[in-house]
Amino acid sequence: MNPFSFRNPTAIFFGEGSLSKLSEQVGQYGKSVLLVYGGGSIKKSGLYDRVLEQLNAAGATVVELAGIEPNPRLTTVNKGIELCRTHGVEFILAVGGGSVIDASKAIAAGAKYDGDVWDFLDRKAVVQDALPIGTVLTLAATGSEMNGSSVITNWETQQKRGFGSPHVYPRFSILDPTLTYTVPRDQTVNGVVDIMSHVFEQYFSLTTDTPLQERLCESILQTVIENAEVALEQPENYAARANIMWCGTLALNGGLISLGMTNDWASHGIEHEISAIYDIPHGAGLSIVFPNWMKYVYDARPDRFAQYAVRVWGIDPAGKSEDELALAGIEATRAFFTKIGAPATLSHYNIGSENLDRMAEEAVRFGPIGSFKRLNQADVKAIYELSL
Ligand SMILES: NC(=O)c1ccc[n+]([C@@H]2O[C@H](COP(=O)([O-])OP(=O)(O)OC[C@H]3O[C@@H](n4cnc5c(N)ncnc54)[C@H](O)[C@@H]3O)[C@@H](O)[C@H]2O)c1
């Protein structure tokens, strides 16, 4: 196990009815609030009115930024920064999924920075300060509600990049599983794949002597697998939605589940290049890429993949070699993704080989990626080719 330090400052209010905590929480951070949300599902569900009631109760003056895109765009982030400056915004409230929260984090950092916010995404500057943000989560997937990461797309240059900073951890996040009842089937599937992928990036590690971390990862995977189909069949099943929601928050929680382990994150980088150009959902891209990444790298450490097959998928090890077990676990992953309706190939989105070189080049723009197996441009292209 490697040395580590850990701090997560986000307060969590979890459970049905936890929205009632909102006014008291917002009241701690300021009176001038930027309310950030997406395409209007919060208006249809009535959540918008409930949030405004809470903000009124806190005596807040509210400015709104609506229409955050899935795969949030730099242009929209810049609009938010402008609103913060014009209206003297003191606090940002994100109501939505990962896209709304990520956009809010970039706005929070950009509002306190004199230069171009893209500098943070382009690794030309490091966030030194940010407006405080809070979230009301409506979709279980990214973990953005309790981490310091944000992913933004520059649509003009077709670059999707991330930044991380302790300054943009939400001060609080309200996690009411009933707010995810309206998440459509395909987004529920994407969320499940995203959560599992976050765990994979940490679990498939070369670090040894980390039994607790491995079991934390395995238990999140098992819990998501057990609950996914229930949530898909019964979208208003509280237990299933609650279990998936908490798994999502823990899966990417400032590294909580894999403290002391070296992480990989290559598959996220490989996926970002797909959604940067084709604007497909992040979870769908991961569903396509991840099992192919697994096939490409498993021989770096077949024992970890064999352990995954046995412990997560219950595959009987009797009479099987480590390699056979590893491959059976990878097949089980693909079969599960397919069973819940997640895509397996780029051709599902009519994506061909036209941009593979460009995507592979961009994925390694800061050098080889991943740590389980270091991947150069040719490796990344090979994984894209397996994904066609
Ligand atoms: N910050 C992080 O740590 C992190 C991690 C992984 C991915 N990401 C990024 O997050 C983004 C994806 O976020 P996401 O997966 O949460 O999805 P999302 O926020 O993009 O939302 C997907 C769709 O679901 C809709 N939606 C959300 N809540 C709903 C509800 N309750 N009812 C009905 N519809 C609802 C949205 O309007 C949107 O159309 C991508 O840009 C991805 O790259 C960030």
Automatic annotation (TrEMBL):
InterPro entries with a match to the protein in the record: ADH_Fe/GldA (IPR001670), ADH_Fe_C (IPR056798), ADH_Fe_CS (IPR018211), BDH-like (IPR044731)
Domain spans labelled Alcohol dehydrogenase iron-type/glycerol dehydrogenase GldA: 9-177
Keyword Oxidoreductase appears in the UniProt entry: yes
Domain of life per record: Bacteria
Matching Pfam families: ADH_Fe_C, Fe-ADH
Keywords per UniProt: Oxidoreductase
tRNA-binding is among the record's keywords: no
Ranges of residues in domain Fe-containing alcohol dehydrogenase-like C-terminal: 188-385
PANTHER family attached to this UniProt entry: ALCOHOL DEHYDROGENASE YQHD
Protein name: Iron-containing alcohol dehydrogenase
